[in-house]
Amino acid sequence: MRPLKYWKACNEALRLEMQRDPRVLVLGEDVAGGGIGPDGEVREAWGGPFGFTRGLIEEFGPSRVRDTPISESGFTGLAAGLAASGYRPWVDVMFTELLPLAMDQLVNRVSRTRFLSAGQLTMPLTIKTFGECYSPLAHYPGLICVAPSDAYSAKGLTAAAIRADDPVVIFDSLRLLRDECEVPEEAYTLDLGKARIVRHGSDITLVGIGPSTSMCLAAADALQEDGADAEVVDLLTLAPWDVEGVTESVRRTRRLVVVDFDHPNCGLGATICASVSELAWGDLASAPRRLQAAAVPAMGTDGNPDITTLCMPTLDEVLGAARSSLLAGVTERQGA
């Protein structure tokens, strides 16, 4: 174990998987980043705008690390064909706002291949993108969607995604890019479809998704000063999400607050609250609460702290929702 930044953990996971399996290929805009000199010599590259593929062109060469034209639909379709042919492509679609350009391929080909072939064809395709607009893709059966919350989960989920026989979309966050935590040097995987409890508690469950998990942990620390013991669940896999694990936590604590940085309409936060209400209605001491981003276009908010503050849930809002939930439970018991 040693401290490692988020982007370096992703780079390390990708490098280790390429060393382990020669079928792993890297595709996307600027993933080689000018790694081939004018004389044809392979040189050290900058590895895309955020360094995720840094050094890979030098180690594995242009046959496995390929810059693509600026056509998300084109190179996603290419990756789908490669995956159906036995390769394991890792594809960089820079931002979630660009995913609609590849929606035809993602929805009508990538997500359905295993179903339409009755399991005869696999689709071991990984798509990495930046942003919190994940609900649209989480809606479609056949696509596994994950959102790492730190460097440790980023490395483990990246390896798990590349090894999976189903298509996986990884939603990274620019907010986490330079965050650092302890990460093992060796390769490892995290279970797809399983949430993890990052803090145990007995009074209320706070569910975090990607970067909102750290906000939930900060809220739990503040609630402890109030005398409340909060449990923090890091969702990790968004589709299929861990219904059983989240519901089990809420049954113990009897209260739920979901912090979701995606838009509110048809969002994952609403789905979690609705599912828990259906499955654990008799165990709830107060109504589940969700905090989500404002219903405004997200492009560019990461570069403007003032706009981000206006659009995204804040720590004070999370604390307000949690305290309201705790108080409602007490009031209802006293009234009974």
Describe this structure in words.
The protein is α/β, with parallel strands linked by helices. The protein has 2 domains: 2-183, Thiamin diphosphate (ThDP)-binding fold, Pyr/PP domains (Rossmann fold, 3-Layer(aba) Sandwich); 196-335, Rossmann fold (3-Layer(aba) Sandwich), CATH 3.40.50.920. It is 38% helix and 19% strand. It has helices spanning 6-20, 56-60, 72-84, 103-110, 113-116, 135-138, 151-163, 212-225, 243-253, 268-280, 305-311, 315-335, and strands spanning 2-5, 24-28, 65-67, 88-95, 126-130, 144-146, 168-172, 180-183, 196-199, 204-208, 230-234, 237-239, 256-260, 289-292. The strands form 3 sheets. The chain has a 7-stranded mixed beta sheet with strand order 3-2-4-5-7-6-12, with helices on both faces. The protein has a 5-stranded mixed beta sheet with strand order 9-11-10-13-14, with helices on both faces. α10 links the parallel β13 and β14 (289-292). The longest helix has 21 residues, at 315-335. The protein starts with a strand and ends with a helix.
